[in-house]
User: What shape does this take?
Amino acid sequence: MTHVPDVQTTGAGAPRTVSEVTTTLTVNGEQRTVSADPRVTLLDALRDRLGLTGTKKGCDQGACGACTVHVDGKRVLACLTLAAQCEGREVATIDGLGRDGEPHPLQKAFVDHDGFQCGYCTPGQIMSAVALLEEGRTRTDVEIREFMSGNLCRCGAYPNIVAAIRQVASEGGSDARL
Amino acid sequence: MRAFEYVRAADVDAAVATVTDDPFASYLAGGTTQVDLMKDGVLAPERLVDITRLPLHGIEHGPDTIHVGALTTMEELAADPTVVARLPIVREALLLGASTQLRNMATIGGNLLQRTRCRYFRDPSVPACNKRSPGSGCAAVTGAARMHAILGVSDRCIALHASDVAVALVALNAVVRIQGDQGRRSVPLTEFYLESAEDPVAENMLAHGELITGIEIPLLPEGARSGYLKVRDRVSYEFALVSAGVALVIEDGVIQDARIGLGGVGSKPWRARSAEEVLIGAPPAVETYRAAAAAALAGAWTVPGTAFKVELAQRTLVRTLQNVTEVSS
Assistant: This one.
């Protein structure tokens, strides 16, 4: 891993030396260690340090949902989470969902229902949808739309996204866990 | 983003001491405002004290009050059975307040301290912002004002406090528990916030280093009716143009008690006591609601971009009162 040198603060106070923070966390069931400047977000740590590029950087300001991952079983935004905050946490990303040739039921449903066009928001949509099933918020299309509203799709695939989630929910969603 | 030191607090006392002793330190909880504004260059702390592992988590249930630890997330508070049963105004405000991802991150203490969404405050390339750079002016007053405030404002700053749940909590007479290096104190939320008309910079009465440790929320009496209505530019996942949180106690055909909070209109979460005075002692009727709404907005100060909010806020308050009392037009 590339060593990032210590940096100095440059704000209003007297300069102080900032060291890397070493963070050990579990990602998709594997223990991983990241040593990084405290500014590094979980999103950048996953993509740039751990090589897990499935999670996407959209707005990078908490507005679009493209970076949705699960931390300790809850869906959160990786772009507004500092990697250093994840010491000891369990992180699940789209990269750990399904296997080659054996897509997760939601991945298959998104394909079956054409639940994307460009596909950039899709990892976040699917990680949100997996959480949605666990939260039990798939009883109606209205409920699916409301509780998926933190994931934007600029291609406008919303009707097909809802259809994909509805299909998995109607099949019980029992095999739709992580 | 400016470089900063990252420190994980060992306990509450140590966290408070660390931030109090360092004028360039800030707390880090859910991070949904803090990290965002640090990326934008609006906030530039040189040390972040991560408090997320402190024992300030969870909800204690008393007979008349719930005590919510400051690190309880929005999602956890919305799911609390007592909140579901007794405080629908709080639950609705929370669920309408952010996406599930943000609700899983954002803490209730941090929610109260969220910063304004004013686009000029959030863009350091705009020179005129009295909140960011005191004395520099206000770009919003002559700019693209829409998501801005009309109550408790002046031509020095029209920034809006965008919290939904704080609107419900000011209506409910919630109390903030605070710990500082000099000890602990409790402050009613209605006295916690400061209007930007007084000072665009100081948004609340916390001193540097003081930490919100919890919030006490008095339960509504059995039989009280409450609800929260949010009007926005899209159906979901958007800040309020205007919103209203109301709680009423009606007995013998007369409104015995009324609590009104308004969102999307104030430089602080707005408690509309003038509207409450109109309602209390009157029968639940649309004419009464209209009079109350007119009283609530009597002090509005608008610019061309925000003028529509005076009428919209009144209609939203009337509709919310109608909804909870099932009074038709």
